[in-house]
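Practice problem: predict the structure.
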Amino acid sequence: MIKKIAIIAEHDQGKVNPIIYELLAMAKKIQGMEECHITLFVIGDKIDRLSRRLSHDTGHDVRAVSVPGLLAYNGSLYKKILSTQFSQSHFDYICAPHSTSGMDYAPALSVGICASCVTGVEDVFVEDGKICFARSMFGGKLSAIFGKGEAPLVLTMQPGSFKPFFPDTAKPGAVTPMVYEGNENQMIFTGAKASPCKGSELDKAEVIVSGGRGIGEEENYKYIEMMAGLFPRSAPGASRPICDYGWVKYSRQVGMTGAVASPKLYIACGISGASQHLGGIMGSRFIVAINTDPDAPVFLVADVCIVEDAVEFIRLFVENVKKGRASGWDGV
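Answer:
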């Protein structure tokens, strides 16, 4: 029997969130383990053109749920609409991004349709003949594995966990238009406030050097800036904790709730590697991590792992680079 996978497409101002192609990659991986049909869902007002573009670009069927007046994400309506859709039509897997909106509606949706829910999925594989899903727990210290049961399964995918899949197809999927009239909205949208990281130097930097709690104290952030200054087209970044401490402005925060970075080189200094931070750096081409804890989760994704005090390492690194340049070395 052919299984069915639903993918919830996030969009804003007429543009689809590129994370849809990471969700598609996860769906394709499931599809490789058991025969599945993939359908995309788009919810909102004036979504006809968006739905046609999505069907053309992915080659998959699209259900376009038109909701008059819904111009931005609304948690209350999304929960009602999705619960109605998936109560009327059975899907074995319902996939959403592990974004602020996905984390909002996915658990409520699973309750509404009596489904299981696994959030922050980072991998899909088969174990003992059963499809399993892995996610990090306890700040990345442990990896939990969940096996699919008989009930429908709602999944949120941790951004950066799957390489985006861009179908090479000239045959668009079918678009099924639908209208949701029950707009009993108790939430009023008053506007969206852009993240202070949007449009910051982090978006354009080819090299990012970030500091975390492991740098010890606020005054040590100068070493992060010092190291970043050694590279052309670079920028200093930070993990969320030291932004919360007030050591650094939030405009320098790297992670899912800050800037999602994809530089050529990312250097994590004194950052243990919480899932939200790792999700924001997975697009980096090369990752170097410096941490005193050899079991730090960041080492699982780093290309080069340095077990050392970050501040002491940077001091020596900067000193040696400056000496090398003084002697004519044309390196970093």
